[in-house]
Q: What sequence folds into this?
């Protein structure tokens, strides 16, 4: 006979697994639908219906997207921005966090409050634009790196992690004659890999998905990021769909495998998939870094 405690335990598991399964379906299905529509024949998608699998597989939309020189250029800009921006941002944030984690820092409370203050209050868009312009960063690739170099929330995660490290690590290195720079590079950074990997993931997502700074601070088409081009294409094809319903019907009659809808889905996949593929490689660091960096004993 099954005991009451065992029955309650199994009921709780069923409810938990059922809830997690429903949550997975709700969050995963929209992404899967976008993927299916991107590899389905565009004119076939116009028939509508519920698609769990493409009815007529076609990669013409991907061919059309990757044959667009504007998209290729934007991918290069976004890749370069991410490759340069992530390590630079992580290093600068870690350096600032190391300084602010020092208990004997003169005015440490005021300095920490000063940085936290910037999380809640800013000068606004126009003063920021004026500062960026006065620094000569308009239509300059460096505008993607320097204005957003320091993120205070990420700094607090790393600082909290460093504050939990045993002070004996630094003291032993000081006895051996190491200075602060050597201690930071050789002792502190290696033991902070989990939280640094977490912040690196946050920074990579930020740089890969950023579009507003490209939209505001750059006018040169060769400096547009992938997400900025994606916004442009989505708006362009959305407007085109509203104005050219007759053209869509003509494309269907001619069996042209590419439509505005398929292009939108394809560009969304191209812009989203790379950063999603990065997550599994840093997941173990992400969980550990979030737990250790956000909780203080």
A:
């Amino acid at each position: 006979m099954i005991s009451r405690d065992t029955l309650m335990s199994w009921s709780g598991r069923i409810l938990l697994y059922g809830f997690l399964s429903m949550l997975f379906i709700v969050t995963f299905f929209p992404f899967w639908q976008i993927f299916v529509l991107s590899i389905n024949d565009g004119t076939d998608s116009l028939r509508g219906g519920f698609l769990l699998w493409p009815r007529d597989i076609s990669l013409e939309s991907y061919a059309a997207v990757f044959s667009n020189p504007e998209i290729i250029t934007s991918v290069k800009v976004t890749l370069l921005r991410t490759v340069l921006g992530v390590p630079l941002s992580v290093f600068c944030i870690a350096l600032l966090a190391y300084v602010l984690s020092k208990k004997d820092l003169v005015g440490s409370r005021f300095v920490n409050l000063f940085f936290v203050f910037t999380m809640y209050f800013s000068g606004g868009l126009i003063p920021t634009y004026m500062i960026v312009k006065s620094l000569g960063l308009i239509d300059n690739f460096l505008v993607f790196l320097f204005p957003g170099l320091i993120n205070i929330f990420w700094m607090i995660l790393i600082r909290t992690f460093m504050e939990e490290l045993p002070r004996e690590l630094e003291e032993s290195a000081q006895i051996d004659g190491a200075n602060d720079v050597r201690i930071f590079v050789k002792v502190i950074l290696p033991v902070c890999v989990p939280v640094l990997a977490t912040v690196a993931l946050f920074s990579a997502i930020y740089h890969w998905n950023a579009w507003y700074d490209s939209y505001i601070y750059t006018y040169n088409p060769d400096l547009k990021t992938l997400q900025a081009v994606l916004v442009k294409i989505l708006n362009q094809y959305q407007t085109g769909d509203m104005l050219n319903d007759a053209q869509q019907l003509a494309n269907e009659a001619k069996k042209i495998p590419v439509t505005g809808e398929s292009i939108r889905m394809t560009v969304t996949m191209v812009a989203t998939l790379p950063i999603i593929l990065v997550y599994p490689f840093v997941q173990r660091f992400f969980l550990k870094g979030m737990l250790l960096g956000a909780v203080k004993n």
